[in-house]
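FAQ: What does a ligand-bound record look like?

Like this one, built around 6-O-phosphono-alpha-D-glucopyranose:
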Amino acid sequence: MSSSPAATSAVPTAPFVVVANRLPVDRIQLEDGSTDWRTSPGGLVTALQPVMRKNHGAWVGWHGAADEELEPFVDAGIQLMPVALSSQEVEEYYEGFSNATLWPLYHDVVAHPEFHREWWDSYVTVNQRFADLTATVAEQGAVVWVQDYQLQLVPQMLRAQRPDLKIGFFLHIPFPPTELYQQLPWRNQILEGLLGADLVGFQLPGGAQNFLRLVRQRLQYPTHRERISMPGGRTVTARAYPISIDTQGMADLANAPATVARAEEIRRDLGDPKYVFLGVDRLDYTKGLPERVQAFGELVSDGTIDPEEAVFVQVATPSRERVDHYRRLRDDIDRLVGRFNGDIGRIGRPPITYLHSSYPKEEMAALYRAADVMVVTPLRDGMNLVAKEYVACRTDEDGALVLSEFAGAAKELRQAYLVNPYDIDGMKAQLLQAMNDSPRSKIRRMRMLRRQVFENDIDRWATLFLNDLGSPASAARAG
Ligand code: G6P
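The answer part, i.e. the structure of the complex:
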């Protein structure tokens, strides 16, 4: 980490800067009562850690608590630059505009998006704060990579102050069809915000096309294929970069003796059933949890699946718990699972084991190993990395992946048992098919899925994006 000679304060500067709503660390409580930081298990930080280390990168983000100002600090070799949010901003920018306006709107309005002008004002203020801090951190000519829907105005705000920077943006969630996007009262401002970048990345080509179409229709900027000609002669590229996981790292974890032993223990604890079904999601209404519970519950209650033979384990990680839709979903799922287990369960053997909790990735790898059928059935999902993690962990080439057509991952994982999660009967049929398929067919499918996730891992994703951005960071990384 170098300190710019021109800098008047002690703010460290860097040639490569990642900007994301969250810092890549979680605060943990130590035994002596003090607190420390631990690198988050997320894929993004895993992917970017080598680039960050080699290029003395900095990461600008929120540390997750309200009304707390933190000084910059270093964790795992990465310079972290905390952005403070007041409790009102957490309510209006994070829970409000990001997660009760944009999140449902961008996920096909599976929940009703709320539009409030004060939430928008807060979104602008907070995006400006991220842009201002980034402008002081980025060295002359630095590469800045802005992440996700919470920060769509940052590229433009940053360019206004620092035209010398190379700016990339990546949207981790779907970019919606134009008809839905048009509902947004601030639709033009957000398009202009994104166009501050040199390269705007999406999960799927469809998202990039929706964006290009809106830019033509709403802003009348000429486009040619993936390129947009901006007034003043600048060009912006919009293209798909499907995100992935650290495939080898996940496979190694799945093969570790402790994981193998834990997977066996999990099956024993579940009563050694013939089939274990598994779902792993953030507790979010986009994930299609009620539909999934309904499908499995009906298979048991109508006698198609024998609860002596099969169990369903659903892990639901707590998320955005103060947002109304999430609170209601939690109650709905509790009720639904309780009803099915009450109706069809026996003492000591609930057909559905529901865990509202988050687990370390070692435990996740053991669960993936223990599951015969992985059920990933979101109503809409930008990518879904759980599907890819399951495939990476099936080093035995066994196991079956049931996957929603509406997850971005379905475009790549064509050999999964694909389902329309709105079609409960169709989903029941595919759950049975995945459970009863011949070992030969399952292995054939799993091999192809594995080839896909090994060839297209997170490393390749970051390299492709940074190369297209013309970033020297990518070259340094390959060396
Ligand atoms: C999705 C979003 C991320 C977000 C994550 C967790 O994956 O694309 O930007 O960080 O959910 O949500 P949270 O609101 O807890 O950050």
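Follow-up question: can I read anything off the structure? Yes, for example: The radius of gyration is 23 Å.
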